[in-house]
Design brief:
Elements lengths: L3 E7 L3 H12 L8 E7 L6 H11 L3 E5 L5 H11 L5 E5 L3 E3 L3 H11 L5 E10 L12 E3 L2 E4 L4 E3 L5 E3 L8 E5 H6 L19 H11 L4 E13 L6 H23 L5 H23 L7 H24 L1 H7 L9
Parallel strand pairs: 1-2, 1-4, 2-3, 6-12
Antiparallel strand pairs: 4-11, 5-12, 6-11, 7-8, 8-9, 10-12
Length: 333
């Protein structure tokens, strides 16, 4: 019986995907209890050939081609293809899972009947030593560490119930019936020419889960390592990531109130945030790290630019507002 369907959306990252699949094939959980679905978003590299090589030695791997562009469609295609009616595990194509990763997830669900979502540690696998300014974006308190711009999280050594949005998308384990009941994921990553359709992805799903009263659990033994190439350890990358997060924040805000703001209100909000960013940024980095403020301000300014971009696009296109306010972005047979 298949207890877990591991869903791996991918696009043109065959090199990192190889390490991901290798780690998933070497799990302590018996291979007849889980399957792996590689959902290829029309890659132009050797993703197909690589996956077929793994299929020869790991028959529980399947390759699926998804033509619609965007992470949203890959995730939901994986749900449609899944043979497990119990647990879905969504992972990124640039992670390396510990050998007991799936076994720990399964045991956690079996030991806690009140939960539908399991998260754990997402630790860094840095290609190069991170720059000093990265501290401006870290959150550290009482043995916990979060760096959301790189999708890193470590909530310490104690297993406990947590907020649903503390489960990051690169290691997202959920009961299938809960995901379907809440309407699946919201839109997430899209190519740049489709940026206005970006949403809040798994974060939006987490908000829906919490509104329905579902619970999440953190197990410190559920561990993956997330590859962080040197290209992501640049101010330029953080600015780009912040811009995308600003788009997502706008999407979330519109869905919360059921409408968007006017042109004038949007511009006033933008100006307010720019000025408020100065005292907040100084508080965030602290007086002892005042040299980090220029980097923090530059990156977070892009966050609010992304927010403003999305609000303006929604104002220009009534159809986009209807899209943002859709009840569900998932259709299942």
């Amino acid at each position: 019986m298949i207890d877990i369907s591991v869903i791996v959306p991918t696009f043109n990252r065959a090199k990192s995907l190889e390490d991901t699949l290798k780690s998933i094939c070497e799990q302590t959980l018996s291979s007849n209890r889980y399957e792996v679905i590689v959902v290829d978003n029309s890659s132009t590299d050797n993703t197909f050939m690589l996956t077929e090589q793994f299929v020869r030695t790991c028959p529980n791997i399947r390759y699926v081609l998804e033509h619609q562009r965007g992470l949203l469609y890959c995730r939901h295609r994986g749900v449609k293809e899944s043979r497990s009616n119990n647990i879905l595990v969504f992972i990124d194509d640039d992670i390396i899972a510990e050998k007991n990763y799936l076994e720990t997830i399964l045991n956690t669900f079996e030991e806690h009947n009140d939960i539908v979502l399991v998260g754990g540690k997402v630790l860094p696998d840095f290609e190069t030593y991170p720059p000093y300014w990265i501290k401006a974006f870290e959150t550290q308190r009482e043995g916990t560490y979060i760096l959301s711009f790189l999708s890193l999280i470590d909530l310490g050594e104690n297993a406990n119930h947590i907020r649903c949005d503390f489960v990051f998308g690169c290691s997202f384990s959920i009961k299938k019936d809960a995901l379907v009941h809440c309407g699946g994921f919201n839109p997430d990553s899209f190519p740049l020419d489709m940026l206005k359709y970006r949403g809040d992805g798994e974060t939006g799903l987490c908000y829906k889960l919490e509104r329905q009263g579902y619970k999440a659990f953190y197990n410190p033994w559920t561990v993956i390592r997330h590859k962080v190439p040197s290209s992501r350890l640049t101010i330029e990358y953080f600015c780009k990531r912040a811009y995308m997060e600003g788009v997502s924040w706008s999407f979330t805000g519109i869905r919360k109130i059921g409408r968007t703001s006017s042109y004038i209100t949007t511009e006033l909000y933008f100006l307010f945030y720019i000025f408020a960013l100065v005292p907040f940024g100084l508080y965030k980095v602290g007086l002892r790290s005042i040299s980090l403020f220029p980097v923090y301000y530059k990156v977070m300014l892009n966050f609010f630019k992304g927010y403003r971009f999305h609000r303006m696009e929604v104002l220009k296109d009534p159809g986009l507002l209807s899209y943002v306010l859709k009840d569900t972005f998932m259709t299942l047979p």
